[in-house]
Specification:
It contains 5 helices and no strands. It has 135 residues and is an all-alpha fold. It has one domain (29-133).
């Protein structure tokens, strides 16, 4: 009986681990999609012809990165990542390198939202874009 249980143990462990690995891959895919969308909006902020539009797209970057459950999420702004996941930072949890990159992009986007000149907002949008495009 004990020998039979020992033979079944690898199958049992595989049955437990496989769904967790699939879930982790799904979260990573969600984080990647949200980061790509945030990157696109950073590019839109960089191309903006006025400060108000640049700020709007930087808010979209923030919303994609933090997700709707975060206190940093601005519900008065659009959520271009709606339905993609829980926010890139939430969905990347556990991937230290990706989390660090996303936090850096978030800090630059938050600084850009507070920028008082279009040039400063563009500079921060460029930093966000560069950071999000790193692999």
């Amino acid at each position: 009986m004990a020998n039979r249980c020992i033979r079944c143990l690898p199958i049992f462990l595989l049955a437990l681990v496989l769904p967790l690995a699939t879930l982790a891959a799904g979260s990573s895919d969600a984080a990647s999609k949200q980061a790509q969308t945030a990157s696109a909006h950073a590019g839109m902020a960089l191309a903006a012809k006025d400060l108000k539009v640049a700020h709007m797209h930087l808010h979209h970057v923030i919303n994609c990165l933090v997700g709707p459950a975060s206190k940093a999420f601005d519900a008065s702004q659009a959520d271009p990542c709606k339905g993609m996941g829980q926010g890139a930072l939430v969905d990347a949890r556990g991937d230290v390198v990706t989390e660090a990159r996303l936090h850096t992009a978030l800090m630059d986007a938050e600084r850009g939202v507070k920028a008082t000149t279009l040039d400063d907002a563009h500079a921060d949008a460029q930093k966000v874009l560069t950071t999000l495009q790193q692999k």
